[in-house]
Design brief:
binds uridine-diphosphate-N-acetylglucosamine; alpha/beta; 3-stranded antiparallel beta sheet; 18% strand
Length: 325
């Protein structure tokens, strides 16, 4: 099978390409890093690249949290317009399957349980609470700290930053494409992806890359809030296997969204400590600083992907972090 991989020269794209090769298929890489052309919105070029392909893996995107609103149109262009161009080219070339990179950030703060008022969508945290060092989201009715829950795919979407909003739009466009063409669209809501090749030293770098840079320079990792915020770090090789499995899984026509996480929840403080230990570096510092755009906990329930894709993550966090470092 021949598969077009947009963003195929990027961090996740390179791992996907290796996986496609290993499975005996052919990856056609479409990436501005290869020819310098700004081509993700160029429908004729996309159509030419698609000839002979059976499926698309659409990874090309502007990633990260967004530095400030001067990024707004850049995100909209690369992510919204880019996805629209890819889907139009797919329709015009009669491609039946598209797998797209979405993100856990589409859920915003996700959902959590109040001991008295049950499971509720988590409201944004008040600036006053954050400034006072009260980081746990609270029940809007009684003010009690909420207990985070694993987020299943049918949880209400609630994007809280520009990047997250473009990923919700990507899913909506893909669902419309699937209905109009009778094709299969699979949006993969990736968790925090890490592993060899992780981008670093950019304003858009994830926390694992930032901690690594600090440790390499002999500085302690600087942990925001109280370090008890939770995430799920999933290794890039596991993400690549899930992504290729989604192309081959024979999922039904129409849209499907799947959480892709390791299923192993850790706190950011724990990750910092483990990385410092592996590197034999200084103990992490809990700074109490916070970023307004940050959500407190993001933890997925990835059991649907396991069931539908016949996939299971294989790289344990300690081994993955050791490789990374
Ligand atoms: C990350 C990705 C996002 C992806 C999402 C999927 C980045 C920048 N963001 O979001 O694209 O869609 O996962 O789940 O890669 N922190 C520190 N110290 C630092 C930097 C961050 O303690 O120096 C903390 C943050 O406050 C946050 C946590 O680490 O609580 C994770 O932050 P980060 O890696 O920036 O991104 P996510 O919000 O998890």
């Amino acid at each position: 099978m021949r598969v077009l991989v947009t963003g195929g020269a990027g961090f996740i794209g390179r791992a996907v390409q290796r996986r496609i090769d290993a499975a005996g298929h052919e990856a056609v890489v479409f990436d501005r890093a290869l020819d310098g052309a700004d081509d993700i919105v160029d429908v004729p070029r996309l159509r030419a690249a698609l000839r002979g392909c059976e499926a698309i893996i659409h990874l090309a995107a502007k990633v990260g949290l967004g530095v400030d609103l001067s990024d707004l149109d850049g995100y909209a262009r690369d992510n919204d317009l880019g996805t629209a161009a890819v889907l139009r080219a797919a329709a015009e070339e009669s491609i039946g399957r598209v797998v797209l990179a979405s993100s856990m950030v589409v859920y915003g703060e996700g959902r959590a349980r109040c001991p008295d008022h049950g499971t509720i969508p988590v409201p944004p945290r008040a600036v006053g609470d954050l400034a006072a060092g009260r980081f746990e989201p609270r029940c809007p009715r009684c003010g009690t700290d909420l207990v985070p829950e694993l987020v299943p795919e049918d949880t209400r979407l609630d994007p809280r930053n520009v990047y997250a909003a473009t990923k919700v739009h990507l899913e909506q466009l893909a669902a419309i494409w699937a209905r109009e063409t009778g094709g299969t669209a699979v949006a993969l809501r990736y968790h925090n992806v890490y592993g060899p090749g992780l981008p670093h030293d950019t304003p858009y770098a994830g926390v694992a890359a930032i901690f690594r840079s600090a440790l390499v320079a002999g500085r302690p990792p600087a942990v925001f809030e109280d370090g008890r915020q939770r995430r799920d770090f999933v290794h890039v090789d596991d993400v690549a296997r899930a992504t290729v499995a989604a192309v081959r899984a024979g999922l039904p026509a129409g849209p499907t969204a799947l959480n892709i996480g390791s299923g192993h929840v850790v706190t950011i403080g724990e990750v910092a400590s483990r990385m410092a230990m592996i590197m034999n570096g200084p103990e992490p510092v809990i700074t109490g600083r916070y970023r307004l755009g940050d959500v407190r906990h993001i933890t997925a329930d990835s059991s649907t992907a396991r069931r539908l894709l016949g996939w299971a993550p294989a790289v344990p966090l300690d081994q993955g972090l050791a490789d990374l470092l």
